Amino acid sequence: MVERIKKKPAENYFDYSLLFIVLFLLGFGLVMIYSTSSYEANMQGHNSTFYLRKQVLATIIGLAAMIVVANIPYHFWERFAMLAYFGSGAMILMVLIPGLQYTANGATRWIRIGGLTLQPAEVAKVGMILFLASLVCRMGRRIRTTKGFFTVLLIPMPICLMIWKITNNMSSAIIVFGIAALMLFVASPEYKKFIILGAGGLAVIAALVFFISQAAASENMGFRSERILAWLNPEAHASDKGFQTLQALYAIGSGGILGKGLGQSMQKLGFLPEAQNDMIFSIICEELGLFGAIAVILMFLLLIWRFMVIANNAADLFGALLVVGVMGHIAIQVILNIAVVTNTIPNTGISLPFISYGGSAVLFLLIEIGLVLSVAKGIRLKDT
Predict the structure, then answer these.
(1) Which residues contact 347 (CB under 8 A, 6 or more apart)?
(2) How many CB atoms lie within 10 A of CB 312?
(3) Any bridge partners for residue 93, and if so which?
(4) Is this prediction's pTM over 0.85?
């Protein structure tokens, strides 16, 4: 008598570790936003929870969007790849329309739709990930040719230039290009081209910094040139472009190993501009010390590790590239934010993912996490 062995159907995979890390970062971010922004909110005549309530609302909407996107098969979005690319470009152009544009802290980077404000640069990051993942899959082996390589590399340039020139947001333009470069790096085996381009880029940047430092006596230095000079010598520009950097360094230095304690920061009391936004990592260092800073960095490293696990086990190239794009977005932004706060690179407006204040940023980051979870659900677990 032959026994029939019934094969169990393969189970779908769900990455609870990734979900836990994201929820932890969101919760921690809300705590730090309240701790950092309550004083400034009171000084502006608002309730101490003013910034917290706005971030909580954006987070709830983002979590709802994440759940919806996670439960939709990720290949559904492939048909909207072209629309995502050109649609994000159109949204950036809408910043030029007087009735739609919205200005905050002297920067016109948002559009107002009804009672909601939206930053088109955040839309462009998601759109670029979706479009390049679809494009690379369609190109196939052609991506290995020189023409294919530079085609993919040049695709994001129009969007990057629009973000830089129209919204005056060079940091987001760098992030969008960085996302494209990382996705191309993963998809292409031609590492020699990346080494040559990287070395050339570093040489150009070094030459530019040297030129600006030598021309410091000029009275016609541009806005970003002044930022580079403030980066090289923040003490010499303590009353201008170096002020924020110095205050951030004071906060980091005064935190010590274990910090002053949650809510006990001095720099957030009107000394450090944009404390709840770009400089929130310095307040984390001041209140929670080196221990808290390392803990936050470790959580981001765990997040990147989970992305790599999902990308390596994705069902197809399209899913893997989606995850790589999201991984590149978050990794680049974390590295640049911490580098700015510690004065490793010139000061530029880059938020810390999931932690800094910003409704558009957290909303579209959670949509990206939904895409990653959707890819993870496509992984089949076989019972051996």
Answers:
(1) 227, 230, 231, 241, 244, 245, 340
(2) 10
(3) none
(4) yes
